[in-house]
Write a structure and sequence with these properties.
This protein is mainly α. The protein has helices spanning 2-15, 20-45, 47-62, 67-72, 79-94. The longest helix has 26 residues, at 20-45. The chain is globular. The mean pLDDT is 94.
Length: 96
C-alpha cells in the first residue's frame, strides 16, 4: 500500500510545474511518508527498491533554493538537478 502512495507522490511531483512551492510541498510530504513508514516500506519493497527511495530522500536534503548557499556548498543542488535526479530514480524504481 505504501508503495502505491509513494509512486503517486513522486509521479505527481515530476509531472508538476518546477517551482519552489512544489518542491517544498513534495519534500514535506515525502519526508513525512519516509519518516513514518521506513520499516513498513523496507519490508514491502526490499533493499534495492527501498534504497532508491532513500536516495530520493537524500536528494531532497541536498536541494537548496538559495544560489549563494549553493555556490559555497558543493553538495547542494538546484531545482533542475533535483527534478532530473528524482526522475532518474523514479524510472529506476519503476524499472523503466
Amino acid at each position: 500500500m505504501n508503495k502505491n502512495i509513494i509512486i503517486k507522490l513522486i509521479n505527481d511531483f515530476i509531472s508538476a510545474e518546477m517551482s519552489d512551492e512544489n518542491i517544498l510541498k513534495f519534500r514535506n510530504e515525502y519526508d513525512n511518508l519516509m519518516d513514518n513508514s521506513r520499516e513498513s516500506l523496507f519490508l514491502e519493497l526490499g533493499t534495492d527498491q527501498y534504497n532508491i527511495l532513500d536516495d530520493i530522500y537524500m536528494l531532497l536534503e541536498m536541494y537548496e533554493e538559495d544560489d549563494m548557499i549553493r555556490k559555497n556548498d558543493k553538495h547542494c543542488i538546484n531545482k533542475e538537478t533535483l527534478y532530473s535526479h528524482v526522475l532518474d530514480k523514479y524510472q529506476e524504481f519503476c524499472g523503466f
